[in-house]
Amino acid sequence: MEQALHRRLSLARQATDQQRRALQRLSPRAQIDARRQQVDDLSQRAGRSLGHTLALHRSQLAGLQARLAALSPLAVLERGYAIVRQQESGAIVRQVEQVAPATCCRSRCRMGNSGPR
User: Fold this and answer.
1) Residue 77: exposure state from Cβ atoms within 10 A (0-12, 13-18, ≥19)
2) What would the pLDDT profile of 70-86 be if each residue is shown by its tens digit?
3) CA-to-CA distance for 70 and 105, rounded, in angstroms?
4) Rounded distance between C-alpha atoms, residue 85 and residue 101, angstroms
5) Beta carbons within 10 angstroms of residue 99's beta carbon
6) Cα 7 from chain centroid?
């Protein structure tokens, strides 16, 4: 009989422990703590993702800036070319045929401008 009582008491303790753990899992405090942890985890993930996206966009922007700089008329002048304009109209001369003999032109090169002398 004593053994049976000990067994019943042990089973009752186990059942009580299980119910206590279930109550702890279901308590509002535990749920709030779990949700708070989820928010923290998601916030960290979002921060890392945003940082990665920002770095990617910066890299793309740097590439576009380099392409734009290479196409700049000033970059063309840096490579040794000149921009020639008709003196009177200011129109850019793209072909020799655009300029009649003895027509005054102005040129712009890397080191500055020149005109008729």
Assistant:
1) middle
2) 888 888 888 888 888 88
3) 26
4) 14
5) 15
6) 66
What is this structure's pTM?
0.49
For tokens 């009649």, the residue is 100
CA dist., res. 61 & res. 24, Å (int) = 52
Domain ranges of the chain: 1-71, 73-110
Distance CA 77, CA 42 (A): 52
Residue 19 and residue 108: Cα distance in Å, rounded? 89
Q: CA–CA separation, 55 vs 48, rounded Å?
A: 11
The contacts of residue 85 (CB under 8 Å, 6+ apart) are 91, 92, 93, 105, 106, 107, 108
CA max distance for the chain: 131
Task: Quick: pLDDT tens for 98-107.
Answer: 888 878 888 8
Classify residue 93 by burial, with Cβ atoms within 10 Å: 0-12, 13-18, 19+: middle
End-to-end CA, the chain: 128
Residue 19, token pair as written in the block: 């119910």
